[in-house]
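Private note to self, pasted from the team thread so I don't lose it. Backbone tokens:
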């Protein structure tokens, strides 16, 4: 299962290695790896064997020491028990020192191998009788009493244990104050004394003392004295020195306090002063033997209290920079012995042979490596030399040198490869010659096709420019004159309606032209974002007002709502967002006969757009390059967010088989064809505008139930102060007084276009002249000196570009404002026009407000506007759109809302006024908005908002 992925890894490795390296390196690695692995495993196994051997040796040594110590300590216990039993049976007379000495003399022969150092008895009256072994291996009898004046007398002894000669008279001695006597009396039983320094000789001793009591019936037992047996710890040291523990292993015995009992070294277990006298016992941490001292310090670090060690422990510790095998075994008995047996063996005692094996393994690895390299080089050379020759020949062929062949006289696979290569080279030469001829012919064909494509592309651009000019010029007249006619005060109502129809038809035709041009720019990749800061809530309100009458005419409910967290002020391409919403809402109303259309706006919580029931068609990511990026850079830190929009209708729905082609240009669904409306451009343009704004559009639909279009866009957040305030458009009716007589020159080859401007400007009192081409314009300008020239750019005889350049090339012409009028919609046209010297740029068809604004901007014309008597009500209406919401009605008492609803249904104006007054006390703005709707007969608007809060029954 792992072979195939491994092959994939090697196949995808980007390194380009020579074949010689590929052949040699794996072979060498295999040899080194095999030998190294064997050596490593051998080393590790040796280490484990050494560890096991060391542990076994330390355990055996520790057991042997413990056994020997138990034997040593058992003798004093036996002698103590024998004497106690003899005294209890009255076999020994404690008042007869000679009898005691002979008894002690016989007992020392029974245990001669253990070398008991002393057996003695101290009475409760202070007398002392004993037999002791001296450092010169002679026995002496010691006595203290009234006879010796309580001084310590030492006597020589004969072969039967009788005193013969007084050898020494010591100091005053009282056995009752000795530690061994007091500890036995205090314990009331046999007990080992603490280790102490012999007061006569430099050695450590320990005493097993047993108190002797006299039992009298019906009376408390009385103390007769204490029998003691001394054991010299030097015997333990001699035994430890005789042990062989590896090559340089050491063992020592310590008490729980850390004081040395005995060791296998020559070091004395006590300290001497400068005069050589014994002054104190030796602690293991103060030992002059480095290994004992370091081990003792390590143990105190490992165990803060040595009394914690209750069981055998084995471990490896690094002491003085070298690994050491260490074992600790506790030694205890019931009479007070509590020692620790420590065995230390350096790892180096066992690793010498293993290290030698390791060195041998390393030498074998080096030898194997050298042998592998030599064999690999020879083998690689034998394999790669023919291949390298084949490679060189292949490179020559790649350079076009077809005559190179490979001569390899071998009968193996490489020789067959060389023969096949030569045959292939010959065939390639023939094929290349044929291919060259075909490529030349195909290249000629492609050059011709390229020239034709460039000619066709140029023709398309020329066609679009001419079509735009030729269509916009008459549209300019149609829309312009229809606007002029609406200013008339003499037209009848039905005539004004006819003029409005003409104007709307012209606007519709202009929209179709713009759609075609937009699609052309999108396909050419020239569409860019024109971002601005704007009020999103006002945009939604304007669109709602735009389509409300159309929806009501069809008996449909139009609901535009947004979540509370939708930002009001944003930055993106307002024109494109407006066009997308208009296209989608217009289609929804167009193909819905009953029910309604809902528009919902909210914040995107995740980038993925969820789909409703039905079939969904996701959009693809097209390559558009916006003029400005929506996401904030690290320097500006402009906050961004994603908004989602949903347009849902209850219309006919779209068949699943039609969804795939829904966003293709000039393609309509079956429902659209039956309606005989539209061009099939709205949805493709809308989708591409959404993608340009950083989002995507999806559609889900169920036939007979309706369709939902969803899209999201990325926007930047803006502040209210950054949003341009929407100015109320007012109609110009005259010029302000006390202004100069403005001279305006109108230059256009189309008489209708000139007449449109003349009819627009003449009633206001401007002095006007007209010209049909650039040559006439120059003559009139030179003679008449107009303040401003409206210059068409495409004219016969002399176009507007040449005329503008001529005028602006003079000092006089610099004082004349020239504004270009063009029917072209290409953005490139603006740059060309401004570079020719024009002061501004305006496209046909234009709006009269744009004409007046341009003249105000460039020559300072002031106007008198129509007095709008309903300005206050308009403001109330605009604010009412924001105040008059379902949420506002929800905050009112239920009874008030129910009474208002019933009053509107009954068309009871008095009751409506009463309920409005009640509401005014709580929410004056809402009451004013309700009153404004009632005055404009917008009853349905209020009823829809009230119904929005009522749950369905």
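Design output:
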């Amino acid at each position: 299962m792992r072979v195939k992925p491994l092959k994939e890894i090697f196949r995808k490795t980007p390194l380009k290695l020579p074949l010689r390296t590929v052949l040699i390196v794996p072979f060498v690695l295999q040899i080194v790896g095999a030998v190294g692995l064997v050596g490593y495993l051998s080393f590790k196994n040796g280490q484990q064997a050494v560890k096991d051997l060391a542990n076994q040796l330390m355990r055996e040594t520790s057991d042997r020491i413990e056994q020997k110590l138990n034997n040593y300590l058992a003798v004093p216990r036996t002698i103590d028990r024998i004497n106690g039993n003899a005294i209890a049976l009255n076999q020994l007379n404690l008042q007869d020192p000679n009898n005691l000495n002979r008894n002690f003399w016989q007992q020392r022969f029974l245990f001669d191998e253990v070398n008991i150092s002393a057996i003695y008895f101290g009475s409760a009256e202070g007398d002392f009788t004993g037999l002791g072994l001296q450092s010169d291996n002679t026995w002496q009898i010691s006595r203290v009493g009234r006879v010796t004046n309580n001084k310590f007398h030492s006597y020589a002894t004969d072969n039967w244990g009788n005193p013969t000669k007084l050898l020494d008279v010591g100091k005053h001695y009282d056995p009752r104050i000795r530690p061994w006597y007091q500890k036995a009396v205090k314990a009331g039983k046999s007990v080992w004394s603490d280790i102490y320094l012999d007061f006569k000789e430099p050695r450590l001793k320990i005493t097993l003392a047993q108190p002797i009591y006299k039992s009298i019936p019906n009376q408390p037992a009385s103390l007769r004295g204490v029998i003691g047996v001394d054991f010299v710890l030097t015997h333990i040291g001699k035994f430890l020195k005789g042990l062989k523990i590896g090559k340089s292993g050491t063992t020592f015995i310590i008490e729980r306090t850390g004081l040395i009992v005995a060791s296998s070294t020559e070091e004395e277990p006590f300290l001497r002063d400068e005069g050589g006298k014994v002054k104190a016992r030796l602690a293991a941490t103060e030992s002059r033997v480095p290994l004992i001292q370091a081990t003792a310090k390590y143990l105190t670090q490992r165990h803060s209290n040595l009394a914690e060690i209750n069981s055998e422990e084995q471990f490896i510790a690094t002491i003085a920079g070298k690994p050491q095998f260490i074992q600790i075994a506790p030694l205890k008995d019931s009479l007070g012995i509590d020692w620790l047996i420590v065995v230390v063996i350096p790892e180096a005692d066992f690793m010498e042979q293993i290290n030698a094996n390791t060195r041998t393994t390393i030498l074998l690895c080096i030898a194997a490596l050298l042998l592998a390299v030599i064999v690999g080089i020879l083998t690689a050379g034998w394999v790669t030399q023919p291949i390298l020759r084949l490679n060189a020949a292949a490179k020559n062929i790649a350079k076009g040198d077809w005559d190179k062949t490979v001569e390899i006289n071998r009968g193996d696979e490489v020789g067959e490869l060389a023969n096949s290569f030569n045959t292939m080279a010959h065939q390639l030469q023939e094929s290349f010659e044929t291919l060259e001829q075909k490529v030349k012919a195909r290249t000629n064909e492609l050059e011709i096709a390229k020239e034709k494509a460039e000619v066709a592309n140029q023709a398309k651009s020329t066609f679009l420019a001419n079509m735009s000019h030729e269509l916009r010029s008459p549209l300019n007249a149609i829309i312009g004159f229809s606007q002029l006619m609406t200013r008339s005060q003499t037209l009848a109502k039905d005539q004004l309606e006819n003029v409005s129809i003409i104007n709307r038809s012209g606007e519709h035709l202009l929209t179709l032209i713009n759609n075609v041009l937009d699609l052309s720019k999108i396909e050419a990749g020239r569409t860019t974002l024109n971002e601005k800061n704007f009020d999103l809530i006002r945009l939604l309100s304007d669109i709602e007002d735009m389509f409300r009458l159309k929806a009501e005419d069809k008996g449909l409910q139009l609901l535009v709502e947004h979540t509370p967290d939708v930002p009001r002020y944003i930055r993106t391409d307002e024109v494109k967002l407006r066009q997308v919403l208009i296209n989608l809402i217009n289609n929804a109303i167009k193909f819905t006969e009953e029910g309604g259309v809902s528009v919902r706006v909210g914040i995107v919580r995740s980038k993925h757009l969820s789909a409703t029931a039905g079939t969904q068609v996701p959009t693809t990511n097209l390559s558009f390059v916006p003029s400005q990026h929506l996401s904030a850079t690290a320097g500006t830190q402009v906050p961004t967010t994603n908004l989602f929009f949903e347009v849902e209708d209850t219309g006919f729905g779209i068949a699943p088989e039609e969804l795939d082609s829904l966003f293709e240009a000039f393609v309509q669904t079956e429902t659209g064809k039956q309606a005989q409306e539209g061009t099939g451009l709205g949805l493709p343009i809308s989708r591409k505008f959404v993608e340009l704004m950083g989002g995507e559009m999806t559609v889900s639909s169920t036939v007979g139930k309706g369709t939902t279009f969803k899209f999201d866009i990325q926007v930047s957040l803006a502040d209210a102060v950054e949003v341009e305030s929407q100015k109320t458009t007012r109609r110009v009716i005259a010029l302000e007084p006390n202004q100069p007589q403005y001279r305006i020159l109108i230059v256009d080859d189309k008489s209708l276009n000139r007449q449109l401007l003349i009819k627009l400007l003449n009633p206001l009192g401007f002095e006007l002249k007209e010209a049909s081409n650039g040559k006439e314009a120059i003559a009139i300008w030179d003679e008449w000196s107009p303040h401003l020239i409206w210059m068409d750019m495409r004219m016969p005889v002399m176009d507007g570009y040449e005329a503008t350049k001529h005028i602006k090339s003079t000092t006089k012409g610099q004082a004349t404002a020239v504004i270009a009028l063009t029917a072209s919609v290409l953005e490139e046209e603006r740059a060309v026009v401004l570079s020719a010297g024009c002061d501004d740029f305006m496209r046909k068809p234009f709006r009269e407000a744009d004409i007046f604004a341009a003249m105000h901007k460039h020559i300072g014309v002031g106007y008198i506007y129509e007095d709008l008597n309903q300005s206050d009500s308009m403001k109330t209406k605009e604010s009412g759109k924001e105040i008059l919401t379902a949420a506002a009605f929800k905050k009112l008492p239920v009874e008030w809302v129910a009474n208002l609803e019933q009053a509107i249904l009954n068309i009871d104006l008095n009751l409506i006024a009463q309920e409005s007054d009640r509401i005014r006390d709580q929410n004056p703005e809402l009451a004013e908005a309700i009153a404004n709707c009632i005055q404009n007969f917008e009853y349905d608007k209020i009823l829809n908002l009230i119904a929005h809060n009522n749950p369905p029954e």
